[in-house]
């Protein structure tokens, strides 16, 4: 019997088309899944760039803390910052908001290289002032000669016009030395304080140049300006044409005589690695002298003065309001003559320390993701 296949024409074509549809669907699905996975990977990379930029920005700000700018911010105000991370091409922007006198909230927004992803982190940091404690207006090691019309005053005095000064600080000794037999006083009523003179037999080269976890060299490494042997005259505040304090100028050491002026909140850390001579002008902050300091011409300084060598004043002398330490590592004679004035001021000391203080991240809940 002959079989009739006329009713089965086109079956192969239909099967082939169906197979092509199935294969096409599989290929399309695989391609779609691949594209999705690639997009997810790209998004993950961008998010990682963003979070890395945000965290890196906060870390950079804390590591390179601009004390001259941030530490002068009023409570409730903030200072903005921005930058790029060269190693991952991300960028960041943010602000350092002053929560209290000692605490800041650093907010940092991070963005991917193409700015399509954004993350934000916050870091709580606190000021960590240098642990420098004064026990007298003038603290010295070795022989000390005081004469002329000079005056050393351990009673706490507030600089004229300075705000936020504590008026309840107890007076300190006028002079602290390690050996009473090495004191040569050639003036009358030229020392005041409580007591007038104190003896501290524990004074040594190390104790005069070590401050908590830091030493003199550590402080010197943080200096904003390095000065030569001098002599320097004309030290004083300088304001540029836009009314901003010209902090880059070597002889601009702030403006203690007018704390409300543009340079009134500028407290640099100054380092003289080979000693120096100052003959006139005015400044504030922390003065670190590695060697001898010679002062004439009525130079005035408000803040902390730490000398590893000898302090010498003569003629119209020098005026120091804050605290002075002379380590006198060579055990030569410190000479305070002329009409020199060394007056203890807790306000000048504390504001200088706070204004130059670095920051440290809070130990508990110091970092948080703000997204």
**C-alpha termini separation:** 82 Å
Shape: elongated
Global mean pLDDT: 86
* Largest pleated sheet: 11 strands, parallel
Number of folding domains?
A: 2
Order of helices and strands: HHEEEEEEEEEEEHEEHEEEEEEEEEEHEE
Total of helices: 5
Low-confidence stretches: none
User: What's the count of strands?
Assistant: 25
Keywords:
371 residues; alpha/beta; Pantoate--beta-alanine Ligase, Chain: A,domain 2; 2 domains; six-stranded antiparallel beta sheet; 25 strands; 32% strand; elongated
Short synopsis of the structure:
The chain contains 5 helices and 25 strands.
Can you give a write-up of this model?
The chain is of the alpha/beta class and 371 residues long. It has 2 domains: 11-127, Pantoate--beta-alanine Ligase, Chain: A,domain 2 (2-Layer Sandwich); 136-356, no CATH class. The chain is built from 5 helices and 25 strands. The strands form 4 sheets. Strands 5, 7, 8, 10, 11, 14, 15, 17, 19, 21 and 23 form an 11-stranded parallel β-sheet that branches. Strands 1, 2, 3, 4, 24 and 25 form a 6-stranded antiparallel β-sheet that branches. A 6-stranded parallel β-sheet has the order 9-6-22-20-18-16, with no helix packed on it. It is elongated and about 130 Å long. It starts with 10 loop residues before the first helix and ends with a strand. The mean pLDDT is 86.
Explain the layout of strands and helices.
Elements: H1 11-63, H2 67-70, E1 78-84, E2 91-98, E3 103-111, E4 118-127, E5 136-140, E6 144-147, E7 151-153, E8 173-177, E9 183-186, E10 191-192, E11 197-199, H3 205-209, E12 210-211, E13 214-215, H4 216-221, E14 225-226, E15 269-272, E16 276-278, E17 282-289, E18 293-295, E19 299-307, E20 311-313, E21 318-326, E22 334-336, E23 341-344, H5 346-356, E24 359-361, E25 367-369
Parallel strand pairs: 5-8, 5-21, 6-9, 6-22, 7-10, 7-23, 8-11, 14-15, 15-17, 16-18, 17-19, 18-20, 19-21, 20-22, 21-23
Antiparallel strand pairs: 1-2, 2-3, 3-4, 4-24, 4-25, 12-13
